[in-house]
Amino acid sequence: MNASTRTLCGMKTSTNQLAIEATGLRKSFGDKTVLDGIDLHVPAGSIFALLGPNGAGKTTAVQILSTLISADAGELRVGGHDLATDAQAVRAAIGVTGQFSAVDGLITGEENMLLMADLHHLSRREGRRVAAELLERFDLTDAAKKPASTYSGGMKRRLDIAMTLVGDPRIIFLDEPTTGLDPRSRHTMWNIIRGLVSGGVTVLLTTQYLDEADQLADSIAVLNGGKLVAQGTASELKRLVPGGHVRLRFDEPRAYESAAVALREATRDDESLSLQIPSGGSQRELRAILDWLDAASIEADELTVHTPDLDDVFFALTSPTSPAAPTTPATVTTAATALKENVR
Ligand SMILES: Nc1ncnc2c1ncn2[C@@H]1O[C@H](COP(=O)(O)OP(=O)(O)OP(=O)(O)O)[C@@H](O)[C@H]1O
Question: Which residues pair with 203 in a beta bridge?
Answer without folding.
Answer: 47, 172
